Structure formats: structure tokens, C-alpha cells
Write the C-alpha cells for this entry.
Amino acid sequence: MSVFDFTGRRYLITGVTNQESIAWHVAAALQRQGAEIVLSSFGRAARITRKAALRLPSPPDVLELDVTDESAFAAVAKELAGRWGGLDGVLHSIAYAPADAVSGAFLGTPPASALSGFQVSAYSLQRLTAALAPLLTAGDRGGSVVGITVDSARALPGYDWMGVFKASLEAVARYLALHLGPEGVRVNLVASGPLETLSAKGVGSFDALADHYESWAPLGWDRSDPGQVVGAVLFLLSDLAGRTTGQVLHADGGLHAVSAGIGDPPHRPGPGPG
């Protein structure tokens, strides 16, 4: 029996693009544990999201949510209120950095690119959580908001402004935890190691960074496996984390905890028999 039981719980999952996305794997895991979910997407990307939704254990609805459109937040909240009356949690897996904001372009990034990336990647967490707060507080258990970040405590070559946006996301999460904690709403982030997702393709240094993680993470790392992050997200969405808020939980094989690059990479035993 799984330690997680989400029977009867209701979640909004943002950021599902394809089966390689963290959000898709979280959505699948929630459904397998009895939860009801809806996805969000917008514009041309919604067609891709709907195709990915068909590959989930039970294809969910996909709601329109453009986080650059202020009216969209209220529309999603109204739709979910009419559908369920309340909400147990949200996965915020939304990020965007223009091409001139990453891959070594940090010093020349224009204001419009920096501002648009901040709006989508960090400010959207505040807007989405604020819009859904009445639904997250409708039940007697309180609600949980979980976002996806990276290890923003260090400067990651090539991530540039995306690293800044993720650091901002962490600050937004802490202030949301402060202001919504008295209402019973928890806000936490999961810091993932590098994964081969659509967004990763825009970072020129991705392969070198993934190589570094796979060589040095004490527990090992696999850039092709989004499932490595799912357990951390489920924990934060569950009642097991009922007194945890304002935290960044690292799911990166432990690399954030070590000064990698000194001496030889750790030796890990190979797979056992069979």
C-alpha cells in the first residue's frame, strides 16, 4: 500500500506539456492514488497538453490559463469553484525565459525580456495562489501549493536570468507562506536537478550541467527521468507535510549539499543482479 492516499482530493496541475514534463508525471501519480485533477494550458500549447492528457490514466479536462492575462486567474478560479467548490492543492510548474535572457546573454538582456520572464516564472505563482486561496481554504484540511524550481543558491552557467527568476520564485513562495499560513495554506517548492524537458532545450549549457549532476550527485542523477522528482512533490501535497511551509525541498540526488568538482566523482555501485 502506498504511503500516499489522495482519494477524493482535487488538484490543479499546470505546466503539462508532454510525457517528459515533471507535471505530467505528478498528474499521473496523483490519479493513480485516487485524486481528481484538471490541467491548465493556453493558446497553441493547449493542443500539446491535450494530447499529453490522453496518455494519463484518466484523461482530465484542460482549462485555459494564460498567466500574462490577469482575467485568466479569476476565470480559472470561477471554473474550479463551480466544478468542485474547493481545492486541495496546486502544482505550479510554469517558467519562461526569452532566448536573450539565457545561455550567456545575461549582461545584454533587455528590460522587456527580464520583466516578461519574471512575470511568467515568478509573479504568476503569487497571482495564481491569490486567486485560488478561497478555494484552498474551503475545506477543513487547508490547501497545498507546490512550485518547481532549481538550485538558485548558486549561479548556474547558462541559466542566467532564469536563475534570477527562480530565486525570485523562492522569495514569492516564502511571502505567500507568511501571508496564507494563518489560513491553512502551505506553499513550498521542489528544487529539481536538470531534466530533459522542453524548457531545458533553450539553455545552451544544459548538457554540461546534466553531465556534472550525473557525475557528482551522491545519490546519482538521471536527466531522462522526471519521476525522480515526483515523490518530493507528492509529499508536499500530502497531509504528511501538514506543518511544512516556506521550504525548498531538493530532489537533485544531493548535489546541492556538496562542493562537487574536487577530486574524483563519487563511486556508486552498479545495479544489482536481475
Observations:
- The first strand starts at residue 10 and ends at 14.
- Residues 98 and 113 are 6 Å apart (CA to CA).
- The chain has a mean pLDDT of 93.
- The chain has seven helices and seven strands.
